[in-house]
């Protein structure tokens, strides 16, 4: 019998957020639908347009970012795509950081030109170069605050001032920094993007994105684009993301404390030729990191060991408890090797110009006991000597 029973009645409420997978919502009458569509009452109608689990999660991330009306997308790239497709049109020019997430670079380089949108890539740590890249037809600037994998810190104060002065929409992908270290809206950004997949959800079990815009007109365009192209997120993914988000601040603070200690320990190890961590005195953007991130360095550490592929193979094989996986933001520590993963498409010279040698590794530090992490890294570095 296809007659659905209602939800069982209960005086008490669920403490955990219920998972609501329903695609459609049943209205009482056409009048009730009119009320809903015309904004006189609130209600859901079709899951691609919105559902309770997306709403609960988006409001939680809004609170962290000081945002309103954030939208959940099916991935971080869904968020980047919805934002760029919604806010740009043929003939527009974009200025973007030259070390953005690989797929964001690809979208700007390979895909958007097919729709008549052109991008100039430039170094976001160099305000003069950034200014020189701006054109009269520049409509949008896309930057990440901390770059992958060399952890350079963008000159956000200068970039924001330049964008503001010319009425250019400033979009910040805040995935690496997270609102724990930097809240783009507090500093004048127009749009904030997250790959929620990473630190916010934190358990490598869900792919999700988030985008929030300060201008309601931008928000409306991004929402319509996401719903039309089908970029929006599923209830189950949002439900998992929400569960992960509850421990985000605890995880981030612990992982950051670990990252700082691991960076210092690596710097003392024989065989480690370079360590990159934003709050260390030997980091090239140390002063800017301090001013911008208020002493927070985040959970990412990069370092370099001497030698070629035999040494990097030996290092990874010896670090057997550290997951060798090209991701970041998991609750556990993960290790990535840009020359054989994220940056493998670049020539050796192009990698060298970014400061990425064969011995270059990036660590997404997790919440393990720090003594254990330091011991495991020391052993692996020793095995690669
Ligand atoms: C991972 C990542 C993305 C893409 O997110 P997905 O959820 O994997 O689609 C975008 N920007 C940054 C900075 C990222 O690290």
Automatic annotation (TrEMBL):
InterPro entries reported for this sequence = Cys/Met-Metab_PyrdxlP-dep_enz, PyrdxlP-dep_Trfase, PyrdxlP-dep_Trfase_major, PyrdxlP-dep_Trfase_small
Q: Name one Pfam family in it.
A: Cys_Met_Meta_PP
Keyword set includes Cell cycle: no
GO BP annotations of the record are: transsulfuration
> Which Gene Ontology molecular-function terms are recorded?
carbon-sulfur lyase activity; pyridoxal phosphate binding
Which SUPFAM superfamilies does the protein's record reference?
PLP-dependent transferases (SSF53383)
GO annotations of cellular component type? cytoplasm
Q: What is its EC number?
A: 4.4.1.8
Q: Which cofactor does it need?
A: pyridoxal 5'-phosphate
Report the residues modified as N6-(pyridoxal phosphate)lysine: 198
Q: Which Gene3D superfamilies match?
A: Aspartate Aminotransferase, domain 1 (3.90.1150.10), Type I PLP-dependent aspartate aminotransferase-like (Major domain) (3.40.640.10)
Q: Identify the keywords attached in UniProt to this record, alphabetized.
A: Lyase, Pyridoxal phosphate
Q: Which PANTHER family match?
A: METHIONINE GAMMA-LYASE, TRANS-SULFURATION ENZYME FAMILY MEMBER
Annotated family: Belongs to the trans-sulfuration enzymes family.
Protein name, entry field: Cystathionine beta-lyase MetC
Q: What organism is recorded for this protein?
A: Pseudoruegeria aquimaris
Gene name, please? Answer: metC
């Amino acid at each position: 019998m296809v007659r659905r029973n209602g939800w069982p009645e209960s005086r008490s409420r669920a403490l955990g957020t219920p998972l609501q997978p329903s695609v459609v919502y049943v209205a009482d009458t056409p009048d009730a639908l009119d009320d809903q569509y015309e904004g006189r009452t609130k209600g859901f109608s079709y899951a691609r347009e919105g559902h309770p689990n997306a709403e609960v999660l988006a409001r939680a991330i809004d609170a962290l970012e000081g945002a309103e009306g954030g939208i959940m997308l099916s991935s971080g790239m869904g968020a980047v795509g919805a934002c760029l497709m919604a806010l740009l049109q043929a003939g527009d020019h974009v200025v973007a950081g030259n070390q953005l997430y690989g797929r964001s670079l690809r979208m700007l380089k390979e895909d958007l030109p097919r729709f008549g949108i052109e991008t100039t890539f430039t170094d976001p740590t160099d305000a003069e170069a950034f200014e020189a890249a701006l054109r009269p037809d520049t409509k949008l600037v896309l930057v990440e605050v901390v770059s992958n994998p060399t952890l350079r810190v963008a000159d956000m104060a200068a970039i924001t001032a330049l964008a503001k002065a010319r009425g250019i929409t400033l979009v910040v992908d805040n995935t690496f920094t997270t609102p724990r270290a930097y809240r783009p809206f507090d500093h004048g950004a127009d749009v904030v993007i997250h790959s929620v997949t990473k630190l916010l959800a934190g358990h490598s079990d869900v792919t999700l994105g988030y985008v929030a815009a300060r201008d309601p007109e931008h928000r409306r365009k991004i929402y319509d684009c996401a719903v039309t192209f089908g970029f929006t997120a599923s209830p189950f993914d949002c439900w998992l993301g929400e569960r992960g988000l509850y421990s985000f601040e605890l995880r981030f603070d612990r992982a950051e404390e670990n990252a700082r200690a691991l960076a210092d320990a690596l710097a003392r190890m024989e065989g480690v030729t370079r360590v990159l961590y934003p709050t260390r005195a030997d980091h090239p953007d140390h002063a800017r990191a301090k001013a911008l991130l208020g002493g927070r360095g985040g959970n990412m550490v990069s370092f370099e060991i001497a030698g070629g592929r035999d040494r990097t193979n030996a290092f990874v094989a010896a670090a057997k408890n550290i997951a060798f996986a090209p991701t970041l933001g998991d609750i556990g520590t993960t290790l990535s090797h840009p020359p054989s993963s994220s940056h493998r498409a670049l020539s050796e010279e192009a990698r060298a110009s970014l400061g990425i040698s064969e011995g270059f590794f990036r660590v997404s530090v997790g919440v393990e006991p720090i003594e254990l992490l330091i011991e495991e890294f020391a052993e692996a570095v020793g095995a690669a000597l």
